[in-house]
Amino acid sequence: MKKRLRKKLHRGEFRELGFSFDAKFKADTEMQVVEAWLQELASLLNSHSLEMGGGWNSNVCGGFITRERGSVTPEEQDIVRKWFDEHGQNLESVTVGELKDAWYGW
Gene Ontology terms, cellular component aspect (predicted)? Predict the structure, then answer.
């Protein structure tokens, strides 16, 4: 495959990596606490030039974290994982997936 096509299709050296996560809140968690948690998560991601797509409600928050251009590094994944551990007082469980291809890793 030619380089131009690999770039257009995000293949080979142009592959972009990201990771998924699922956070389940404790049953008695108030919506205001969930919203504050999401604001802090958004601030963390913004400070590292990361983006998240996904959804949330009062019970669960889940999504995929990536970068607009390029890949998430293992170090950035560890930063997010540690943040989840430090801010997990209202969480029942958190699952952080492995780095995978953001375009074709499904």
Answer: cytosol
